[in-house]
Design a protein that fits this description.
160 residues; 6-stranded antiparallel beta sheet; globular; 3 helices; alpha+beta
């Protein structure tokens, strides 16, 4: 019986140390230059799934936009990057009401049945918001749809 306790202790101790190590977070907050905790500092939109492993990932910051798209099955991958100006950034972020972001509801993933998952990630100075298949939320999704439409307007035609 003492051997079992010893083995359990041998497994438990390193796990506890790893847990403590990973829970210590000494990251400093990002310096965004903004004093408003509701200012948006990062947007990510992705559409991933399907039988062939299609993906489109768009990352947007105040000064740049980056797109990755491809099909995993065919091993095709394309990337596009561009700088954006403050007018474009303001146009994108104006579609989002930060006060209602917590009210948006996600839906279950559809990738397990060869469906696509649409994911939005919006980071403010204060909080990080993630939504998966939020289009089922008929009340608050409208702002994400407007954001998606604005993003599509920025992309070159070969990536739409």
């Amino acid at each position: 019986m003492s051997a079992i306790k010893n083995l359990g202790l041998k497994i438990f101790s390193p796990m506890l140390l790893l847990l403590i190590f990973f829970s210590c977070d000494d990251k400093k907050p990002e310096n965004t230059g903004s004093k408003n905790p509701n200012d948006i500092i990062f947007i990510r939109y992705s559409d991933i799934g399907g039988e062939l492993g299609n993906y489109k990932i768009i990352k947007i910051t105040k000064d740049s936009i980056q797109l990755e798209t491809g099909i995993t099955n065919n091993k095709t991958h394309k990337e596009w990057k561009s700088s954006i100006n403050s007018q474009v950034w303001n146009q994108l972020t104006s579609t989002i009401d930060v006060k209602t972001l917590d009210k948006i509801k996600s839906s279950p993933s559809k990738q397990s049945v060869d469906g696509f998952d649409e994911t939005f990630q919006i980071k403010t100075v204060k909080k990080y918001h993630v939504y998966v298949n939020a289009y089922a939320d008929t009340i608050y999704y409208k702002q994400l749809q407007k954001l998606k439409d604005q993003i599509q307007n920025i992309l070159p035609t070969e990536y739409k």
